[in-house]
Amino acid sequence: MKFFKTLPVITAVMLASNVYAESGASADPALVVTYAEAPGQQTSSLQGTQVESFNSLNVGSGEKLTNLAWMSSTGTQIGSFDQAYIVPANVYGGAGGTGNYQVESNPAYGGAVGGRNAVETSTLTLNSSASYFGMWWSAGDSFNDLTFYNHGVQVGEFTTQSLMNPLPRSYYGNPSGPWKGGDSWEPFGFINFYGVNGTTFDKVVLSDSAGTGFEADNFTVRDQAWGNLPGETGNAPGVQVAEILTPAAAVDAPIAFGGGRGAGGIASAPELDAGCLGISLGLLSGLLLLASERKRQSV
Fold this sequence. Notes:
The relative contact order is 0.27. A hairpin with a 2-residue loop joins strand 10 and strand 11. The chain has helices spanning 160-163, 274-277, 281-284, and strands at 2-8, 19-20, 31-34, 50-52, 63-71, 77-88, 100-104, 121-130, 132-138, 144-150, 153-159, 189-195, 201-208, 214-222, 240-244, 292-298. It has one domain (2-298). It is mainly β. Strands 2, 3, 4, 5, 6, 7, 8, 9, 10, 11, 12, 13, 14 and 15 form a 14-stranded antiparallel beta sheet that branches. The chain has a two-stranded antiparallel sheet with strand order 1-16. Helices cover 4% and strands 36% of the residues.
């Protein structure tokens, strides 16, 4: 069964001095983050993508899998997960209220979500670099962390605090299935990550530091940067949430990935102001904030 407990919440620090929330921020961000899809939408609106929904897996009530291959519809391998805890849809996740989804939960806390099958981190390694990644990030809490790498160099790091908390109340609560309206105190949204000016990534790490569960579904990737496929003009879909500047090592810059300005670059999307985002200079300087949060535990 599930029950709630009170946990200390540490406001995660994003890459110091590299996150820009105000209008007039750098026009050349390495990653542009948007909540591109409307409230309740649980898939990417981009064309030419590859999607992993985990729905083809027979996992019963939940199972820890290792070396899980992500295969395309044509039978080619997109990448692989080193380990993953896959569970059937419930109030905290599972796009559409059906099928399966992935959860991370720190075993050091007794495997609050997943018990002995709990997975603290899950690393997705792509067979080739991508310029776009998206996922349905459900039941977001302040212990969730998503980190991107390119050739072993960290490209960017994002948390629920930095991405999900700024979403308006229309994103809160499970939007579909028999659990519609459930978990109303946590945000649910499909979040897109765009590589700009030649930035690509080949590894994505999902982690949860306190056993509360990092729930995600409909993992989506694309090698082409925005603007490289027919019909893609103007702004990338959605409203910009955050920008992160990344090391030069993150830039592959072949034409196929939108190297340089022009094709593959993302025109500035409408930005939320700093007040709406709730991102303060305190965050950027490493301020830690303690609070209380209701969350669940499986036993």
